[in-house]
Amino acid sequence: MTCYIHSSKVLLAMTFISICLPVFVQAQSGPTAQELLDALDKNMVAENRITVSTMVIHGRRGTRSIQSKSWTQGNRKSYTEYLAPAREKGTKMLKVDDQLWTYSPGTDRTIQIAGHMLRQSVMGSDLSYEDMMEDQLLSNIYTPEISGSDTVNGRDCWVLELTAKTPDVTYHSRKVWVDKERDIALKESRYASSGKLLKETRIDSVFRVEGRWYPKRMVFKDMLTSGDGTVFILESVDFNAEIPDYIFTKAVLRR
Amino acid sequence: MIRFLFKGLMRDRSRSLFPILTVTIGVFITVLGHSWFIGALGGMLGTSANFETGYVKIMSRAYAKLSQEIPNELALVGVNALLADLGKDYPAWQFTPRIRFGGLIDIPDSAGETRSQGPAMGLAVDLLSGKSGELKRLNIAQSIRRGRVPESPDEILIADKLAQKLDVNPGDVATLISSTMNGNMAIYNFKVAGTVSFGIQALDKGAILADIHGMQAALDMENAAGEIVGYQPDMLYQDEAAHQVARTFNQQYSTDMDDFAPTMITLADQAGLDYLLKMSDSMGFILVTVFIFVMSLVLWNSGLMGSLRRYGEIGIRLAIGEAHGHIYRSLLWESLIIGITGSIIGTIIGLSIAFWIQSQGIDIGSMMQGSSIMMDNVLRTHVTAATYYIGFIPGILATLIGTAFAGVGIYRRQTASLFKELEV
């Protein structure tokens, strides 16, 4: 009898441990995959932001720099005006929900970019218009899973594997290296459903602004093209700036 | 003797009609077939050379590797200097730059919004300098359906079918949306000068023809071109001469390891045209061989039948002392007369029809729907010097060979048994 009681206590203890152990381990080692992804989304999305940036495009034939200013509201609306070089100056782009227009000052035409044109490169960079159109929070379209830890640029990172919840996304899966302390992705690989690596991004430097860590210098590389990638340098960012509503209307393109 | 044999053949139609008909039909098919293949293959090669390959073509090495993708970001730069050098080094040749491009043609409404839009493939050539020979080479003036030839770099010609689909007319604005040499999106306004129909399905379904300077401005390709094509004016493609030019040109850059250094290839090096060239060269030989073989079999058989029918005649001739060899030679002479007669008639009929098809052509446009082959919709025969004599080779050889085999039986006849045979 005593022996029986003793055995049942052991069994109960083992059951309790087996249920609670992953929770303890999780609590000790870090957040859940979903928490990590939510934090990553929260860090990158702001209600309003105005940025000035420079794209340095390293093509096979040389390097070009393109400067632009962008107004962004949430993750559904953005407006970009190109400032330099002279050939691109005055070119504008407006994205509202799932529609994208570009305005060319030389022709005074506003063209909607749709269909296969979305796969074209933006200004000859390693980014496509499809990349620009991605406006859903990662946590809404991907199922995350932590696959381990790694070090990027001397920073400890969680390695997060994301798998698309639906087939209608640009990238079927992603591998993201998330800084354990700063909730920012320092490295990312994007894959097709075949498993082919399509794009790689790497953040070389970050800066702290208004309570969040934000990329200062990042490198995009389209793995299907030659060239040394596109460097994206954030010159300035103003979070929660006042942006008038007319900025996100088609009329702004021809102003 | 020939006159005697000729009279014999004419009076005994059973000896001449079937063999002459056989030879006539064979020669007719040979003559028409030869001119048809030469015309069709030559037309295909000519169209490809004029619109696509040139007799020789210069591209950057990087562009050449991916030329099917029209990678304008890998285009040749410093084209003006290169053209000047080519003019000095190869004065007998005419070199001219071209840009191929793909994209969308967008037609605006009065508010500048998209009224209609469609995919288009285009070719930019030197239309305005008057020195390139492109207007004549591409037969542009004759291909205009509405409007006129472009007179400024910002004017384009649109395939008539595409223009109808987009509801665009001469004088309208058409915006080209494409990629610049830097991979950036190119948006450029052109004025539609006219619409064209080249009679080549691959072009007529949606091509745009522009001046090279306008396209250089549109695609940010100042002093650059996807390719430079070279021709020997007023001459047909000469494979050896083209290879010689390509060899000497490429030798200049043999130590240059730059992926953007120019490289020259010949028409024969492109898109399987080498096979077509070889086929075109050997077509006469193939046709002649096939018809000699087929007709020899038919005429041999006919000779055997003739020998059987003339069994008695040959026997009497042997009996009255005519030599075996003499009879055999007389049969060969007869077959020569039949061969020449059939060949003349067959050649005359074949040439008449070949000349008619050469001038009228046969429209195969309905069979070419959706085709991307650079080939005229109207196929024509091409009568060359060889067309006049090519039928005589199988016509005469086949009758001689047929008779030579059939006549061997004469030597098997024994004089001693002739009278016994003739009694029967």
In summary, what is this structure?
With 255 residues, chain A is of the alpha+beta class. Chain A contains four helices and 13 strands.
What does this structure look like?
The complex is a heterodimer of chains A (255) and B (424). Chain A contains 4 helices and 13 strands. Chain A has 255 residues and is an alpha+beta fold. In chain A, strand 7 and strand 8 (155-164) form a beta hairpin. The longest helix of chain A has 28 residues, at 2-29. The N and C termini of chain A lie far apart (90 Å). Chain B has 424 residues and is an alpha+beta fold. Chain B has a 6-stranded mixed β-barrel. In chain B, helix 2 (13-53) runs antiparallel to helix 15 (392-406). Chain B starts with a helix and ends with a helix. Chain B has 16 helices and 14 strands.
Low-confidence stretches of chain A: 1-28
Mean pLDDT across residues of chain A: 85
The average pLDDT of chain B is 86
The span between the termini of chain A is 90 Å
Strand order of the largest sheet of chain A: 6-5-4-3-2-1-13-12-11-10-9-8-7
Question: Which strand-content bin applies to the residues of chain B?
Answer: 15-25%
Work out the oligomeric state of the chains in this entry. Answer: heterodimer
Number of strands of chain B: 14
Give me the secondary-structure category of chain A: alpha+beta
What topology, given as strand order, has the largest sheet of chain B?
Answer: 3-4-9-6-8-7
Number of helices of chain A: 4
Major beta sheet summary of chain B: 6 strands, mixed, barrel
Q: Compute the CA-based radius of gyration of chain A.
A: 23 Å
Helix content of chain B: 40-55%
Q: How would you describe the shape of chain A?
A: globular
Q: Which H/E pattern describes the elements of chain A?
A: HHEEEEEEHHEEEEEEE
- What does the radius of gyration of chain B come to? 31 Å
Order of helices and strands of chain B: HHEHEHEEHHEEHEEHEHEEHEHHHEEHHH
Based on DSSP secondary structure assignment, what is the total number of beta strands of chain A? 13
Tell me the number of helical segments of chain B per DSSP (H or I, 4 or more residues long): 16
